[in-house]
C-alpha cells in the first residue's frame, strides 16, 4: 500500500496547490509567492464551491470540486497573461536590475526548495517511518470524528462544511440517532482528505496520513519560508536557518498529530503565516491604493481560509499581529499635526490607542454569543505556577520533554529581537502568546477564559501557538550562534596556519545543531535513559499507530469485523456500543454502525427517543414492545459487541480496550447493549470469538 500512499500524497499536493497557484498568477503574483500562498486561495475556493454544489444537485468529488477550480484558475491566469502589457513592470524590472534581480529570484526558489527538502526529510524520518503501515491511525477520541467525516463526505457527495454530520447519506439519515443534527464544522482538512479518497479510492486512514504528511512536510515549511522572508528581508542567513527550525518544536506541529488528534488545527496553524504576511503587506511603504485594496482582499480570503480550517487560528493570527498593529500605529503618528513637535509622545499616543482598540475588539468577541460554548470549555490547570514557567522556558509546554538547545536559540533570538526595533514587535507577539499559555497552564478562573478561552483553554493549542511564534526567534538565535561559533572556529584554523572556510564551518555547525535537536532518545551507559523531544515524538507515533498492540480496535477485532460485514446486509444499520472501539468502524471500515459518537446522548442534544430506548434497554427486546418498536423504526437486525461484559470484567486491560469514564465517557449510556450475552432472550449468536459477538435479533423477522 505504500505506493498508494505516495500517490495520495502527490495528489493531495496537486489538489491543494494547483487552483490557488493559478488564481494568484492571474493576479500577477510572483511565481514563488503564488506557490507558497496557493493553499489559502484553494481552501477558500473549495469552501465556496462545496457549499454551492448541494443546492444545484451536483455531487461533490475530485472531478466536480478540483477540476472546475483548477480550470477557472488556469483560464484566469491565461487571460491575465494575454492582457499583460508588452513592457510589463516585471520585465522592466528584470532589465533594469539585471543580475541582482535574477539573483533575488534564484534566492527565493532556493529557499523554497530548502524548506521543502528539509520538511520532506524530517516528516519522512519522524512521521512516515514510524507509521505501522500507510493506513494505520491513532485511535483517539477526535479521530473518530475526522475519519467519519471524510467517509461521510465521500459517500454522500456533500463536502459542505455548513452541514457536516457522520450520518450524511440518505440511508444514514433514515436511522440517525440525531435527526436534523447537521451543522457547521470547519472541514477544510476533511475536504482535502475526501478529494484524495474520491480520486484514488484509497482507504480513509491512508488519505488522512497522506494529507497530514503534506501539511507538515510542505504547507507549514513553505508558509514559514514566506513569513521568514517577510520578517527578515535581505537577511539570507536567518531565512535559511529557518528551514531547520520550522519543524523543530516537539509541541507544534507534532503535538497536534499525537494528541486529540487535532488535524484541523494543524492545518489552520500551517496556514497562519500566510494570513500574517497578507496582512502585513497592506502597510508596505510605497504601495498604491489599488495594491493595498488587493492585499486587503487577500487578507479577507486568508481569514476565511483559517476559519474553514479551524477558527481559533484567526485568534492566533490576531495575537501575532496585534503588536504589529501597535507598531504600525506608532509609526503612522508622524502624520499627526503635533508629531513634529513631540514625535515620541505622538507615537506613544497612537500605539496606546491601537492597543486599546484591539483590547476592545477582544472584549467584544469574548462576549459574543456564538463563541460562548468554546470560550467556557474548561481544561483544568496542569501545573503549579513555578513549574509552568519552567516548562514554557524549556519549550516543553507540559507536553513534550525539554528542548534545551532549541530553548537557548529562542532565548538568544528573543534578546536580539528585543534589541532591534525592526524585530521587536514579533518578539512581543511571542511574549504575548507565552503569557496566554502560562495563564492557561497554571491557573483556573475567569481570567483564564478571557485570555485562553478562544482555544477551548486547551494548553496544547495555546502552547503550540507560542511554539509557532518562537520559530523566527529560533532562526535568529541559530544564525547568531552559528556566526559566533564559526568565527571562533575559523580563527582557530587561521591561528594554525590553515585557510579559513566560513561556509564549511557554518555547514558543519548547522549539521551538528540539527543532529542534536532532532536526535532520538538514548541510554547513557551506567547512568540513565535520556528522553529527547523528538525521541518522545517518534515513540508516540510508533506506539499510537501500532496495529499489533492492545487497543480499542485491535487486529483481532478488525478481522472479526470483516467476517461480520460479510454477513450483515450493507444497507442495514448495526447496533453497537461505541466505547468498545466500534466508534471507528464507520470511518475506518465503512461499516454502517448505529452509534458513531461517544457523547451527546440526551434529549437536550436532540437525541431521538428510539435511540435512548435502544441504548438503555435493548436487552429487554423480548419483553418490551417499546424497544421492539424502536428497533423496527431504524431497521436493524444485528448487534455487534467487541468487548463483552462489564468494565470490571476487562480487568487491567480495560483502559486499553474501552473508552472509560476518565475520558469523560459515561459507559452507562450503552448499558442496554452491554447487558446482552449469549443467554439473553431475543438474540441469536451468529459469530463468536473470545469476547466478540455478532448477534441477530430473533425478533428481526417480525420487526421487518
TrEMBL record:
InterPro entries recorded: DUF6541
What keywords are assigned to this protein? Membrane, Transmembrane, Transmembrane helix
Q: State which residue ranges cross the membrane.
A: 6-24, 31-56, 62-81, 109-128, 204-229, 241-260, 346-368, 388-418, 425-443, 463-482, 503-522
The keyword Nucleus is annotated on this UniProt entry: no
Q: Name one Pfam family in it.
A: DUF6541
Q: What is this protein called?
A: Uncharacterized protein
Amino acid at each position: 500500500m505504500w505506493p498508494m500512499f505516495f500517490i495520495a500524497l502527490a495528489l493531495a499536493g496537486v489538489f491543494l496547490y494547483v487552483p490557488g497557484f493559478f488564481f494568484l498568477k492571474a493576479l500577477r503574483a510572483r511565481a514563488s509567492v503564488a506557490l507558497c500562498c496557493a493553499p489559502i486561495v484553494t481552501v477558500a475556493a473549495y469552501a465556496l464551491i462545496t457549499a454551492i454544489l448541494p443546492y444545484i444537485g451536483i455531487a461533490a468529488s475530485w472531478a466536480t470540486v478540483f477540476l472546475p477550480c483548477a480550470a477557472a484558475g488556469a483560464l484566469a491566469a491565461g487571460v491575465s497573461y494575454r492582457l499583460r502589457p508588452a513592457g510589463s513592470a516585471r520585465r522592466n524590472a528584470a532589465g533594469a536590475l539585471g543580475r541582482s534581480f535574477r539573483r533575488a529570484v534564484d534566492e527565493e526558489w532556493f529557499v523554497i526548495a530548502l524548506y521543502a527538502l528539509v520538511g520532506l526529510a524530517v516528516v519522512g524520518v519522524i512521521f512516515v517511518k514510524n507509521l505501522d503501515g500507510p493506513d494505520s491511525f491513532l485511535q483517539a477520541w477526535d479521530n473518530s470524528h475526522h475519519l467519519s467525516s471524510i467517509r461521510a463526505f465521500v459517500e454522500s457527495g456533500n463536502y459542505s462544511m455548513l452541514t457536516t454530520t457522520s450520518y450524511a447519506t440518505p440511508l444514514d439519515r433514515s436511522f440517525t440517532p440525531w435527526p436534523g443534527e447537521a451543522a457547521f464544522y470547519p472541514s477544510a482538512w476533511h475536504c482535502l482528505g475526501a478529494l484524495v479518497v474520491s480520486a484514488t479510492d484509497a482507504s480513509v486512514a491512508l488519505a488522512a496520513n497522506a494529507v497530514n504528511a503534506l501539511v507538515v512536510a510542505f504547507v507549514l515549511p513553505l508558509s514559514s519560508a514566506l513569513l521568514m522572508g517577510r520578517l527578515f528581508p535581505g537577511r539570507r542567513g536567518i531565512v535559511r536557518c529557518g528551514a531547520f527550525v520550522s519543524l523543530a518544536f516537539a509541541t507544534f506541529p507534532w503535538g497536534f498529530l499525537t494528541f486529540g488528534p487535532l488535524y484541523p488545527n494543524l492545518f489552520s496553524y500551517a496556514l497562519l503565516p500566510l494570513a500574517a504576511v497578507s496582512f502585513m503587506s497592506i502597510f508596505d511603504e510605497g504601495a498604491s491604493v489599488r495594491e493595498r485594496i488587493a492585499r486587503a482582499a487577500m487578507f479577507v480570503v486568508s481569514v476565511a481560509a483559517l476559519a474553514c480550517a479551524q477558527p481559533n487560528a484567526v485568534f492566533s493570527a490576531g495575537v501575532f499581529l496585534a503588536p504589529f498593529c501597535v507598531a504600525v500605529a506608532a509609526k503612522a503618528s508622524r502624520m499627526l499635526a503635533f508629531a513634529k513637535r513631540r514625535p515620541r509622545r505622538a507615537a506613544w499616543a497612537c500605539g496606546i490607542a491601537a492597543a486599546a482598540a484591539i483590547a476592545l475588539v477582544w472584549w467584544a468577541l469574548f462576549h459574543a454569543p456564538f463563541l460562548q460554548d468554546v470560550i467556557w470549555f474548561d481544561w483544568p490547570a496542569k501545573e503549579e505556577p513555578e513549574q509552568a514557567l519552567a516548562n514554557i522556558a524549556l519549550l516543553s509546554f507540559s507536553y513534550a520533554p525539554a528542548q534545551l538547545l532549541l530553548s537557548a536559540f529562542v532565548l538568544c533570538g528573543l534578546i536580539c529581537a528585543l534589541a532591534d526595533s525592526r524585530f521587536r514587535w514579533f518578539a512581543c507577539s511571542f511574549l504575548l502568546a507565552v503569557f496566554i499559555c502560562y495563564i492557561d497552564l497554571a491557573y483556573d478562573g475567569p481570567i483564564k477564559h478571557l485570555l485562553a478561552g478562544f482555544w477551548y483553554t486547551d494548553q496544547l493549542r495555546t502552547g503550540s501557538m507560542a511554539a509557532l511564534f518562537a520559530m523566527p526567534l529560533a532562526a535568529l538565535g541559530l544564525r547568531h550562534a552559528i556566526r559566533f561559533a564559526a568565527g571562533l572556529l575559523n580563527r582557530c584554523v587561521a591561528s594554525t596556519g590553515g585557510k579559513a572556510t566560513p561556509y564549511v564551518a557554518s555547514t558543519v555547525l548547522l549539521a551538528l545543531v540539527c543532529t542534536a535537536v532532532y536526535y532520538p532518545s538514548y541510554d547513557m551507559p551506567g547512568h540513565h535513559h535520556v528522553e529527547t523531544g523528538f525521541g518522545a515524538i517518534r515513540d508516540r507515533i510508533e506506539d499510537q499507530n501500532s496495529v499489533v498492540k492492545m487497543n480499542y480496535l485491535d487486529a483481532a477485532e478488525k478481522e472479526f469485523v470483516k467476517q461480520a460485514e460479510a454477513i450483515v446486509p450493507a444497507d442495514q444499520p448495526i447496533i453497537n456500543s461505541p466505547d468498545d472501539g466500534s466508534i471507528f468502524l464507520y470511518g475506518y471500515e465503512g461499516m454502517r454502525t448505529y452509534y458513531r459518537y461517544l457523547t451527546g446522548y440526551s434529549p437536550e442534544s436532540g437525541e431521538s427517543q428510539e435511540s435512548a430506548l435502544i441504548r438503555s434497554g435493548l436487552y429487554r427486546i423480548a419483553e418490551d414492545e417499546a424497544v421492539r418498536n424502536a428497533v423496527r423504526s431504524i431497521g436493524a437486525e444485528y448487534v455487534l459487541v467487541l468487548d463483552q461484559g462489564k468494565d470490571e470484567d476487562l480487568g487491567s486491560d480495560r483502559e486499553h480496550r474501552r473508552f472509560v469514564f476518565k475520558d469523560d465517557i459515561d459507559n452507562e449510556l450503552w448499558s442496554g447493549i452491554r447487558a446482552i450475552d449469549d443467554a439473553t432472550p431475543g438474540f441469536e449468536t451468529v459469530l463468536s470469538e473470545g469476547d466478540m459477538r455478532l448477534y441477530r435479533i430473533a425478533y428481526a423477522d417480525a420487526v421487518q
